[in-house]
Design a protein that fits this description.
The protein is an alpha+beta fold and about 90 residues long. The protein has a domain of about 40 residues: YefM-like fold (3-Layer(aba) Sandwich), CATH 3.40.1620. Helices cover about 45% and strands about 20% of the residues.
Amino acid sequence: MSHAMPAKATIRDLRNRFPSVRKLVETEGEVIVTEKGEPKYRLTLFTAVRKRKATSVDYWARLAAYMPEPLTAEQAAALRDEARGER
C-alpha cells in the first residue's frame, strides 16, 4: 500500500504564486510548505464544523428518569419522621 506524497510549495510560492498553491491544496487536499528546503508547515482544506441543531432539554423527563416512581404517602411520612429525629 503506497501513499502518494503530498504536494510541496515554498514560502516564496505562497507570496508570489498563491493562486497556484491554492489550486494545489484544492486538488491534492494537502500541501507541505518548505522553508530553506525543510518542511515547516502543512496547508489543508478547511472544513467547517456543522453546528448542531439546538434542542431544548426536558428537565422533568430527566428528573423522572432518576426517580421513575414517586414516593407513596407512607414513604414520604416515614422519610419526614426519620429526618426530624427525636424532638
